[in-house]
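Reader question, answered in our methods column.
A reader sent in the components of a multi-part assembly and asked whether the whole thing could be modeled at once rather than chain by chain. We filled in our standard form and ran it. Here is what they sent:
COMPLEX SIZE: two components
ENTRIES:
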Amino acid sequence: MDNLSSLTGAQKDELMDQVKQQIAVANAQELLTKMTEKCFKKCISKPGTSLDSSEQKCVAMCMDRYMDSWNLVSKAYSMRIQRERTHL
Amino acid sequence: MSTDFDSSSFSGLEAKGGDKDLQEFLMAEKQKAQFNAQIHEFNDFCWEKCVDKPSNKLDSKTETCLSNCVDRFIDVSLLITNRFAQLLQKSGGM
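And here is the structure of the entire assembly that came back:
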């Protein structure tokens, strides 16, 4: 940990970029896992020998809606946080 | 984890200014990550509650349900926390 204090500015920038990137990757992975789980549940009622075209369409649509929903929830949550802040 | 980033790890005066940047940066990123994790959790169960068969777009009823779901969940969480605190107090604390 001591050598953290001897980082140059450029090294520090690189470290920050790496942290940001790793967080972004983790976030994308979480979203991917959740979408796969949720859309499998919604679209594949009886797993057949292949993914038929209606299932594929359903999964594609489900993905888009899941991201819509994510954005909406994010908006609602940040609005609530703001409201709570002004009430304090 | 938390001990890795506390101020005691950063000794030396000249380093202090720069490491403060790093510390602030990490704090901000941590907060953002916690916010994101919370959204993943909300979206997980509000999706179950509100979304039927996925269609071309989220209809307005579903949209209302989703934002109500977030707000009511927070209400319930606050209510339970407060009532639980009261119960603890009434029973003479722990």
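What stands out: Chain B has a mean pLDDT of 84. Residues 13-50 of chain B form the longest helix (38 residues).
Send us your own complexes using the same form.
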